[in-house]
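User: Predict the structure for this protein chain, please.
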Amino acid sequence: MKFVCATFLLLAQSVSCFHFECSRKAFWDRQAQSALVAFGATIIQPSKAKAAYTPKPAELEKLRIGHARIKWLLENWDLETEVCGKQSMSEIERKQVIRTEGQGSGGCEKTPLNVQGFLGYKSTEDPLYRVEKLMIRAADLVVDGDVEGYLSVVEAYKDKADNSAMMAYTSSWGEANPNGGKEVIDEYLERTKLDVAETERYLRQILNYLNLEPLPARKNP
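Assistant: Here is the predicted structure, written as structure tokens:
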């Protein structure tokens, strides 16, 4: 409001020079003052916009929580990507499962799509859902000023996370595809794990760039 009033007064003073006698110097002095006011506005407004754009600590916490969940997934891989003892099988089927998967397995099925749930690809409520947008907004918070290096890691993280989700999906269809089988599921799931490990590494680097301390591995931090 003060800016608007000041601008109006300066413009009014400038116009008055056309109605009353005033020196050329006085006229240009007033024009210079108007320019300074306008210049000040261009400085102040982007500053406010930048403050609103930069993520708050509560938003950045999503990165730490998401990282803790990915670490949990890697440390509890079989637990999170396999379900055992919940199948209804005949005696012959049960013997086949024991023979191929080990005595006492109780009949296990791989659940590769669970991986997507830890990477933000199954729910909008997940802390890592479209997290690359948050990462880009946080570029101004990079502690050592290496924004270019930071954004390069963000891009690498996005590529690995996307690839992990895609490999998990491919693994889930391993048995249904021609020449498929449980071995194909296991192969793709192992490749998925390697991609998830790389995803975790890049996310850990991003936390380091932003001076954020990683949380312990937990499914629900």
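The chain has nine helices and two strands.
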